[in-house]
Amino acid sequence: MSDLPCLIADVMLGSLAKWLRILGFDTLYFRTIEDSELVRTAKQQQRVLLTRDTGIARRKGLGSLILIASDDTFQQVKEVLAALNARSLKVILPGQSRCAECNGELHFVDKKSVADDVPEHVFLALNSFFRCGNCGKVYWDGSHKQHIDEKIRKIIEETHWAISESD
Question: pLDDT tens digit string along 18-51?
């Protein structure tokens, strides 16, 4: 699906994990996980470990790790992108992104298939819907999408990153 690196975030970075998923990063996150299991999963799956825990960061033989300094989610996103040297972000098209909740891939679905899963006014007003292949959550372009797009544009403007169209 993507040539972006796979990531795993520690328990302190749930909001960061959601935003990285929105940007298209395959990002594992568990609300509760022992440090040893977190490290083991990162190594086994060759994921970049994102942590705010200096104790984890001091461990030897971790592989790829980014120690997050900021408390602010959007500063954290910038830290990750800078550390990954992501100077050019591809525009993530719906259907090529990830579920913000579970990290599953999103897929375009027929409007009729979501009739019972979305509010009636949304169903009547929109034609494009996406469903998570893992948890089944349905997504659509509503006002929340505009908010997300604004945040992403702000991050890009503040860091002078380039945007290119997805392949």
Answer: 999 988 899 999 999 999 999 999 999 999 999 9
DSSP string across 17-84:
HHHHHHTT--EEE-SS--HHHHHHHHHHTTPEEEES-HHHHT-TT--SEEE---SSHHHHHHHHHHHT
Which mean pLDDT values do the consecutive 10-residue runs of the chain (167 residues) have?
Answer: 82 95 92 94 95 90 90 93 68 64 93 96 93 94 82 76 49
* Domains annotated on the chain, with CATH: 7-90 (3.40.50), 106-140 (no CATH)
Say what the pTM is.
Answer: 0.82
Q: Per the structure block, which two tokens stand in for 14?
A: 């749930």
Cα 32 → chain centroid:
18
The two three-digit tokens of residue 93, written as one number: 């098209």
Distance CA 9, CA 138 (A): 24
Residue of 48, 64, 66, 63 whose CA lies nearest to 6 = 48
